[in-house]
Design a protein that fits this description.
Keywords: Acyltransferase, Transferase. The chain has nine helices and ten strands. Helix 2 packs across helix 4 and helix 3 crosses helix 4. The radius of gyration is 25 Å and the shape is elongated. The two termini are 25 Å apart.
Amino acid sequence: MTVTVPGPRLLTAQDAATYSEWFASLAEPTRVRLLHAVATAGRSMTVGELTELLGISQSTCSHHVRKLADVGFLLLHKEGTATRVAVNPNCCTGLPHAADVVMGVLETRPCCPLDVPADVTVRPLEPGDWSAVRRIYGEGIATGDATFETEVPSRKTLDAKWLPDHRWVAEVDGEVAGWAAATPVSARDCYAGVAETSVYVGAGSRGRGVGKALLNKQVTAADEGGLWTLQTSIFPENRVSLALHHAAGFRTLGVRERIAQHHGVWRDTVFLERRTAE
């Protein structure tokens, strides 16, 4: 069977022209400082206030204000003889969105790796698997880069929080070699399709594609089972896990700095998300 991987989707000429105009309007340091001053003020400002704040002439300030207003970054209105300047709230999301589009951050990622090893079998977790699942959980804790947990949760705790239809184990030669599970992020109905995911591979089974096989099953089952968003947090030091998740269609949304302490040390996490294609 031949698998055809679609090529990159290019920006339309119209979008490229629009974004180019936006970015070009910021190709001047004073203009960037001016936009930042208005955006962080929390209120509209007069041209006179901006002139004094930035230490520039009124004519220079008016020129840059007009340039920023022409592309829609700023909104202007008269109040008596003064011109008041406010940031366009749509640009607070529109400009970062444009940068994400240009850099490919918002491009649809592939569903999952195509080279899943044939000797790894993934199936639903069964009652007899819990001992192996908790052992593998403990092996992940021992690495120091898998979780903030310092002790393996009880079977009762895990069974209560994991979605029944989204808990999997991987077998190699008839032995459980890893597991994956999804946990609801909220009890609210509007978030019913959003889940936090976990993937663990046993110490003796790493490097042979077990994680890849588990993620393949996890994301395809999520798509088929009505989960529209999967999210996870991974320590930056866990490069293997980050690469696996990127290959499975997850994208990095950001780094949560000093999010929690681990053995008395503040740790960062990389926050990733995967959306269904539809």
